[in-house]
Amino acid sequence: CSVCKGTADKTTIYAAKTVKLSTTKYTYNGKAKKPSVVIKTSKGKTVSSKYYTVTYASGRKNIGKYKVTVKLGGNYSGSKTLYFTIVPKTVSGLKLSSPAKKQLSIKWTKDSKVGGYQIVYATNSKFTKGKKTITVKSYKTYKQTVKSLKSKGTYYVKARAFKKVSGTTYYGAYCATKKLKIK
Fold this sequence. Notes:
With about 180 residues, the protein is an all-beta fold. It has strands at about 15-20, 25, 35-40, 50-55, 65-70, 80-85, 95, 105, 115-120, 130-135, 145, 155-165, 170, 180. Strands 9, 10, 12, 13 and 14 form a five-stranded antiparallel sheet that branches. Strands 2-6-5-4 form a four-stranded mixed sheet, with no helix packed on it. It has a three-stranded antiparallel sheet with strand order 7-8-11, with no helix packed on it. Strand 12 (about 155-165) and strand 13 form a beta hairpin.
């Protein structure tokens, strides 16, 4: 009170300490992504959404990196820029065969939303022995033959898709590992 110099009520407002997105990595599915924002005070309490505004980059449905701007208001001040990514979906339809002696044929389902594929094969399931990586630089290619392998050897194969956007390469998750004993 400015007349009696007394305090009728006192409320402590703790500073906004952490500003985070609910999710920072999505898998492509053709739908726009909109992660929610979570702001916590220095005491660990959640700040109400009435004290901040969130601005999302346009699009947010294709593979790439997207910006989210959070501007604090009311009892809080400041702003923070956060980012989330959308990565290619997991390669599907991985099939292995041995068309000839010492050969491994690898096929998968083509995906027009990616730039290419990364195929990894090895002689053990942990991919630590005889590991080789093949990079397929076009989404149109959906099969690969590996020659001069160890006869009657068992090979383990996994694959993932990738796409380069604005100089950054985004990789999807590896598909389930398949194995085959070749001729």
